[in-house]
Q: What sequence folds into this?
C-alpha cells in the first residue's frame, strides 16, 4: 500500500495542471494530473503536499483544504491518496519542472485534456461539491477503469 498526496492549485477559475512528459518510466506519461507525490517516512500528508507543491511548482502553500480521499486499485497495488485544493499560495511558477510542463487550464475545459478515466469522476466532485468525499477507482491491467465508486 502506498500513500500519496494530490493538489489542485486554483487561480482565476483555472487549475494548475502538470502534463507528465519528462520521466522515462512514468505510469502518468502523457497525462495531465495535479501536483503531489509520495508521503515520506515520518511526514504528514499536509507536510508532504506543501513540500511536493514547492518542489514541483515553486509555490509555497499558505493554506490547503482537504477535499477527498481517493483509493486507486491497479491489480495487486493499492494507492491511497489525500486530495487537496489551494487558492492561497505565493511565489513564482517554476519555468522548468523536472516531471513535465505546468499549465493553467480553465476548470470548465479540464475534461478536454488527456486525463485518467477515474480523474474525471473526482474532478467533477471537486467542481460540484464543497464537502469532503471518498472515491474508489479500480483499473484493470491495461489501465482501463473498470469500477468507480463514490463512497458516501
A:
Amino acid at each position: 500500500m502506498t500513500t500519496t498526496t494530490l493538489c489542485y492549485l486554483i487561480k482565476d477559475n483555472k487549475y494548475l495542471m502538470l502534463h507528465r512528459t519528462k520521466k522515462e518510466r512514468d505510469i502518468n506519461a502523457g497525462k495531465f494530473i495535479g501536483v503531489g507525490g509520495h508521503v515520506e517516512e515520518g511526514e504528514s500528508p499536509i507536510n508532504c503536499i506543501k513540500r511536493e507543491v514547492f518542489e514541483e511548482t515553486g509555490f509555497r502553500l499558505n493554506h490547503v483544504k482537504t477535499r477527498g480521499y481517493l483509493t486507486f486499485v491497479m491489480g495487486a497495488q493499492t494507492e491511497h491518496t489525500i486530495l487537496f485544493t489551494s487558492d492561497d499560495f505565493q511565489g513564482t511558477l517554476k519555468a522548468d519542472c523536472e516531471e513535465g510542463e505546468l499549465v493553467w487550464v480553465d476548470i470548465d475545459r479540464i475534461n478536454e485534456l488527456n486525463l485518467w478515466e477515474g480523474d474525471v469522476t473526482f474532478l467533477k466532485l471537486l467542481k460540484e461539491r464543497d464537502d469532503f468525499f471518498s472515491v474508489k477507482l479500480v483499473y484493470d491491467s491495461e489501465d482501463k477503469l473498470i469500477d468507480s465508486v463514490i463512497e458516501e
Q: What stands out?
A: The longest strand covers residues 59-74. The radius of gyration is 15 Å.
